[in-house]
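Collaborator request, handled under Task 6.
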Amino acid sequence: MNAVALEKELTADLEKFSDENVVEAYITAILNLCDKNRKKLEKELLKRKLFLVALERYDIQKTLGRLDSHFF
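Structure tokens returned to the collaborator:
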């Protein structure tokens, strides 16, 4: 009786680790990793964009300030 239960349990474990399930788990893990990396990249790009916008505004203000000082 125990041997039959053990055999059924082993068969169930093997079904969990079938090729299809392993491939599906592997692909899911890769997609999750790609999604996480994409989100990190988007955050980094947003930081850089905000920095460049601030730098551009500073440059414009500095340039306009110089132009104003030349006229007055």
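The cover message to the collaborator said: "The first helix runs from residue 2 to 16. The chain has a mean pLDDT of 82. Please let us know whether this matches your experimental observations."
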